[in-house]
Design a protein that fits this description.
By secondary structure, this protein is an alpha/beta fold. The protein is built from 15 helices and 13 strands.
Length: 402
């Protein structure tokens, strides 16, 4: 069976994790701090905080910004549930909007229609690792600055809607010469096991706020905020006589461990010159094969201004129903090829339907979802396996559609 997206675990990673275990630092320590600095240098943002998940990073930033009861957060209907769940956790209202028909990303015109004086945050999602239209989104929140009603000190300082990018898919992607992480006020990456760059579990908050914010000062605050509100971490307390600490607020517990950072350091070192070269080759192979058949709608993963990071290959089949898509997937699985769907839209989930959301209100989202099949993309996928995937997809479409 060809798997969908197994992580790349080789001797380099095993050796580095072993070294971390032997070092005596298995929680947040020198490797995590080194990883944060190298991520910042790579992305070109101001400062970076590593955490145990992207979900934690999104929620922490909403809470830091003072998002709560009566507030609204605009996000695409086409995303994973985590993007919306964190809004619910904060007591705010997710406002879903429809997406683009070509690249799955949030539609800027639909964002503007949804903005009102309750809007505190826009959360674009870089679907499949392809960047959203950040110039337009950033211009939009400035355009509606006079409509913004701040309810917290940080909201008053920024003076407008915050752009909080869910960049879970897009580490390494480029938009107009800048990398994701440096495109919005704050971007949050995922380093989950299936991501291009993994730390097994983990994420990072890439801070990039404009003046008068001090992103280094904010980083220091968030280090405390994400470690129970404790004013010293374990590394600081190892200094002679520096054992005494204080709890300065009721914070959260979502720090990254040095074991996770050990994996991330290896992954980052070989990301551009190895991992991404292989993933791009797989994408290009799929693109060449499926572009020849007009039944397929191939994904957009590069334009003049954008270069995706080859995270997901979301193939769509023209003119089919959701039932036909599911039947095609079953046939592909029967060929011993694992495929997936990204994603079941959030308004279709029971919890959100019970809140009154209706997928019928997002026709482009549903159309994209109903025809989408995500194909395997991972470092160790061989040429032979790639051809097997292509053959399985084509034969399965032939069988179901005739």
């Amino acid at each position: 069976m060809i798997p969908f997206s197994p992580p790349r675990i080789d001797d380099k990673i095993i050796n580095e994790v072993t070294a971390a275990l032997k070092s005596g630092w298995i929680t947040t320590g020198p490797r995590t701090k080194d990883f944060e600095k190298k991520l910042t240098a790579y992305c070109g943002n101001q400062s970076t905080l590593c955490l145990n998940s992207a979900t934690a990073g999104l929620e922490i930033m909403l809470r830091w910004y003072g998002v709560g009861d009566g507030d609204e957060v605009i996000l695409p209907a086409y995303t994973y549930s985590a993007t919306a769940n964190v809004v619910i956790h904060c007591g705010a209202k997710p406002v879903f909007v429809d997406v683009n028909a070509d690249d799955f990303n949030i539609n800027v015109a639909n964002i503007e229609k949804a903005i009102n004086d309750k809007t505190k945050v826009v959360m674009p999602v870089d679907f499949a690792g392809f960047p959203c239209d950040y110039d337009e989104i950033n211009a939009l929140v400035v355009k509606h600055k006079n409509q913004f009603k701040p309810k917290s000190k940080n909201q008053e300082l920024l003076g407008r809607i915050m752009v909080l990018s869910d960049s879970a898919h897009s580490f390494g992607a480029n938009y107009k010469g800048k990398k994701c992480g440096a495109l919005a006020d704050v971007s949050v990456f995922s380093f989950h096991a299936v991501k291009n760059l993994t730390t097994a579990e983990g994420g990072a908050v890439a801070l990039n706020f404009p003046e008068p914010f001090d992103n280094t000062e904010l980083y220091n605050y968030l280090c405390m905020y994400t470690l129970h509100g404790q004013n010293k971490d374990a590394l600081a307390k190892t200094q002679k006589g520096n054992w005494k600490y204080d709890i300065v607020e009721a914070g959260y517990k979502c720090n990254m461990t040095d074991m996770s950072a050990a994996i991330g350091l290896v992954e980052l070192e070989r990301y551009d010159n190895d991992t991404q070269i292989k993933r791009k080759h797989i994408f290009d192979t799929y693109q060449a094969a499926f572009s020849k058949d007009n039944r397929f709608q191939v994904p957009v993963y590069h334009t003049d201004s954008k270069v995706g990071c080859y995270h997901l290959y979301p193939l769509r089949i023209k003119g089919i129903t959701e039932v036909q898509r599911d039947a095609i997937m079953k046939e592909i699985f029967d060929c011993d090829v694992s495929v997936n769907v990204h994603f079941i839209p959030v308004p279709a989930m029971t919890f959100y339907k019970n809140l009154g959301y209706d997928l019928n209100n997002y026709p482009v989202t549903y159309d994209n979802f109903s025809r989408e099949i995500s194909l395997p993309v991972f470092y160790n996928l061989t040429e032979e396996q790639t051809q097997t995937v292509i053959s399985a997809v084509i034969s399965s479409v032939n069988k179901v559609l005739g």
